[in-house]
Design brief:
The chain is α+β, with helices and mostly antiparallel strands. About 60% of the residues lie in helices and about 15% in strands. A five-stranded mixed sheet has the order 2-1-5-3-4, with helices on one face. A hairpin with a 5-residue loop joins strand 1 and strand 2. The longest helix has about 100 residues. The chain is rod-shaped.
């Protein structure tokens, strides 16, 4: 019986060894496929993560570019508005100067009822004009406003000696009432 078993074992050994080798190959192939599949999945996930990161980076760059463009447009619009407002303000100032110059009328000739007023500007420039003695302090302000010598909007006319400020409360006084007749020297004091 032992002999029979040995003979059967000898006859089947080759087929058993072949079956074992085949099973090992199948197992190795299956393991290799699983490793390859796992590596493929890992590479695929890494590629997808890279693509997602690149897409997010691209979207961020596009958002920043769009934000920069929007900010540039807003700045340009604000600058254009500022230029337009400055032009409108300058045009309004020019209109105001022209209106005040027209409201003053012609300069009166020398005479007993005429007051000569010398105005000194902060720049050192001097302007002189004659007014009717019955004209008000407002007419001197109108004269100063009609000139293109002063950029300040708020200012006061001041006499040197005695020091008197001819502010809004004295605008309705005539030149005689204000003590400026027959001649006066005023300087401009810019208000802060």
């Amino acid at each position: 019986m032992i002999t029979i078993l040995q003979r059967v074992v000898e006859e089947c050994t080759t087929s058993l060894v072949a079956a074992r080798i085949e099973a090992e190959e199948r197992l190795n192939n299956q393991r290799l496929r699983e490793e390859q599949d796992a590596a493929y999945r890992a590479a695929l996930e890494a590629d997808q993560a890279r693509e997602r990161q690149m897409r997010e980076e691209q979207e961020r760059i596009e958002r920043e570019a769009a934000e920069a463009e929007r900010k540039r447009i807003e700045d340009e619009e604000a600058q254009a508005r500022a230029v337009q407002e400055a032009a409108e303000k300058e045009a309004a100032l020019a209109r105001r100067r022209q209106e005040k110059a027209m409201a003053l009328g012609a300069e009166p000739e020398k005479g007993p009822d005429v007051t000569r007023v010398l105005i000194r500007f902060p720049t050192g420039e001097r302007k002189e004009r004659r007014f009717h003695s019955s004209a008000t302090i407002t007419s001197i302000y109108d004269y100063v406003d009609s000139l293109d010598c002063l950029k300040a909007e708020k200012y006061s006319l001041v006499s040197n000696f005695p020091r008197v400020t001819y502010g809004p409360e004295k605008n309705s006084q005539t030149l005689v009432e204000a003590g400026l007749h027959p001649q006066a020297s005023l300087f401009i004091e810019i208000e802060q």
